[in-house]
């Protein structure tokens, strides 16, 4: 156990980002540290969660206890709870900060980004993983894509939801695109689920999979960074360490192109555009976003002019709705229908390759459905337009993962675009 220095006059601060979910009995909460500083998830009773939620640095332990005295809350109860959280690295503290610095240093020193979700979301054994993907493909229904020319495919999206819930959409995409020629470079663009200082985050590391590593294209990444401002693009590279939005694409990519020359990756994480919505500002009007999309477009044009095949690939989900995500009204059957209706409207706009219409759709209701893939899809479509690539798209699959117990629904889709 680590030592604790908390006293009744301390002002505890809960570390973020944390993933908070409801326990199986609905009477507990499960806390997981997204940064990996804490060694394990912890389960806390609902009553304790009411106290923990007040650990924001604004009040002392004594003040928090005094506020809850009518409910039997004492200084000892609050102090013991805070001390236990500190021991487990769930509070901000010198020890937690030191652990985080070690994690960052270790990540920076490694040339390979480890497959942190192998053995959790998918098998870590390559034989088992290959069999699992083959089963997904065998049990998925391909979507007939009229007149699609595989050699002209220039962009696609698949979900980043876990395979257990999303395998049909992953499988439908790869079954529908069977025989796709391997691109030379994949710009792999996904959602940065953790808060960060900038919008875009690059990595030059190879990305490990149970099948072997997929190498990054360091020359292309350096060119993109040089055009857009290298320092800020790598400031929060640590976000790649545990992010699943890119990792969950890698086993399928490796499997699909294993009989060809494996493509090289340009891994890009995209942060939230939410405050741009609040400012009613189109993302490309914002300096940092516009500069990066311009740099991405120039890099795409340069690669294409040299004869290299390019694929922009988004690992994205769509809507996140329900009380689990902060909505006041529970999700109902009619609510699910409304979500799908709006999602289909969104898909119709992005299938046209229209990033402006995508932004207008999101701005209509200030992203009420929490479309987490919006920034990544916008970046893909805007860069292709600026690069002079005319495209048409096809929706391959659309689904909703509904959890009625925790009152939440996540929607997702797979789609493909070809150059005209």
Summary, kept brief:
This protein has 420 residues and is α/β, with parallel strands linked by helices. It contains 15 helices and 13 strands.
* Terminal-residue CA separation: 62 Å
Shape verdict: globular
SS-based class: alpha/beta
Series of H and E elements: EEEHHHHEHEHEEEHHHHEHHEEHHHEE
Mean of residue pLDDT values? 94
The largest pleated sheet is described as: 8 strands, mixed
Flag low-confidence runs.
none
Strand-residue proportion? 15-25%
Helix content: 25-40%
* Strand element count: 13
How large is the count of helical segments?
Answer: 15
Estimated radius of gyration: 23 Å
Word description of this protein:
A hairpin with an 8-residue loop joins strand 2 (28-33) and strand 3. This protein has 420 residues and is of the alpha/beta class. The chain is globular. Strands 5, 6, 7, 9, 10, 11, 12 and 13 form an eight-stranded mixed β-sheet that branches. It contains 15 helices and 13 strands.
């Amino acid at each position: 156990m680590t030592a604790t220095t908390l006293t009744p006059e301390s002002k505890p601060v809960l570390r973020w980002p944390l993933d908070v979910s409801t326990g199986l009995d609905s009477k507990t909460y499960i806390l997981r540290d997204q940064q990996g500083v804490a060694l394990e998830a912890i389960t806390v009773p609902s009553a304790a969660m009411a106290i923990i939620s007040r650990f924001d640095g604004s009040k002392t332990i004594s003040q928090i206890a005094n506020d809850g005295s009518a409910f039997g809350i004492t200084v000892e109860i609050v102090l013991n709870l805070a001390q236990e959280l500190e021991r487990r690295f769930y509070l901000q503290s010198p020890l937690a900060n030191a652990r985080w610095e070690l994690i960052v240093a270790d990540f920076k020193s490694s040339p390979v980004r480890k497959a942190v979700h192998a053995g959790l979301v998918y098998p870590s054994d390559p034989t088992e993983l290959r069999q699992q993907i083959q089963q997904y493909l065998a049990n998925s229904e391909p979507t007939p894509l009229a007149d699609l020319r595989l050699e002209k495919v220039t962009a696609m999206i698949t979900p980043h939801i876990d395979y257990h819930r999303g395998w049909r959409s992953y499988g439908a995409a790869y079954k529908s695109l069977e025989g796709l020629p391997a691109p030379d470079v994949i710009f792999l663009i996904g959602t940065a689920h953790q808060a960060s200082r900038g919008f875009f985050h690059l990595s030059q590391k190879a990305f490990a999979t149970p099948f072997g590593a997929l190498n990054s294209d360091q020359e292309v990444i350096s060119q993109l960074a040089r055009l857009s401002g290298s320092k800020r693009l790598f400031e929060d590279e640590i976000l790649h360490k545990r992010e699943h939005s890119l990792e969950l694409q890698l086993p399928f990519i490796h499997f699909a192109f294993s009989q060809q020359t494996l493509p090289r990756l340009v891994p890009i994480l995209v942060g939230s555009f939410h405050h741009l919505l609040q400012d009613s500002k189109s993302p490309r009007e914002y300096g940092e976003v516009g500069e990066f999309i311009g740099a991405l477009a120039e890099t795409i044009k340069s690669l294409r002019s040299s004869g290299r095949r390019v694929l922009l690939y988004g690992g994205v989900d769509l809507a996140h709705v329900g009380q689990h995500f902060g909505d006041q009204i529970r999700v109902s059957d009619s609510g699910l229908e409304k979500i799908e209706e709006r999602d289909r409207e969104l898909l119709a706009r992005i299938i046209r390759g229209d990033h402006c219409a995508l932004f207008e759709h999101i701005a209509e209701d200030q992203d009420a459905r929490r479309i987490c893939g919006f920034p990544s899809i916008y970046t893909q479509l805007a860069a292709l337009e600026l690069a002079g690539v005319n495209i048409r798209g096809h929706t391959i699959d659309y689904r909703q993962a509904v959890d009625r117990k925790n009152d939440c629904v996540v929607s997702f889709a797979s789609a493909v675009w070809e150059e005209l």
